[in-house]
Here is the input.
Amino acid sequence: MVVIATNLDNSIIFATKEKNMKSFFLGLLSLTLLSCTSTKKITTSEGPLFQKWDLVTLNGENVNQEIHKPVYIQFSDSANRVFGGGPCNRFFAAYTKTGETLKLSGIGSTKMACIDENAAKLEQEFFKVLESVDAYKVVGNTLQLATAGKTIATFKRHKSIPDELAGKWELFYITGPRITLEGLYPDRKPTLTFTSGETELSGFTSCNGMSAKFVGKKGSPIFKPGIMTMMACPGNGEQTFLKAFNKVDDYEVQGDTLIFSYRNIPFMKFKKVIANQ
Here is the structure.
């Protein structure tokens, strides 16, 4: 049996007994990986409204999502319902939509007390804004809510790749192995390619193509393993890279350098080789 595709956690997702089919399916898998990372940008209100959106600005002011419970909104296509979370309470409502017009009605929420005064103020303002919405637009990976022609709230797709990560990055430093980077990767070094606003990234382990989902930042692994081709790889370069990649719990971008950390210790560094995607 020849395994040609696997999750990055090593669970098999596809196999074939026909050895002469290996090249065909590897090619097919490569096309699949490419299609996952080349999604066409949506530029009109016909875009993907029906998903989860994180609040970015409210009445023209930036919202710091790290000092309280995440503020978000999510639309349901099947039930014409919308729900989400404020800094203190969950909310729900019905909506009607025609073209670019949007109206929320019957807004209700849980009744948890806001311990923090700033959170309480933000929640009150957020719920008031939702009551006044009369139009929406999806531009790229941003949702804009408006009233009387003025944008009053903007959201970004939930857990989407930020602009600062966009581009192709090549590994130039990794801690741990007692061998030089050139010794680990004599032919091609590992690379990661991020597209701003998307939720998945693609990569190359030095031997195989891979994908992963971006799931956030700080405190826990920020990448969820996806699929990977399974060419046989000489040496320990690929396993060294994957073991480190799956542990990353924070990142920092310094100019054209991307730094991955684990428990506040930097242990992987990449240089940008292709600008923003």
Summary: Residues 205 and 242 are 7 Å apart (CA to CA). The longest helix spans residues 117-132.
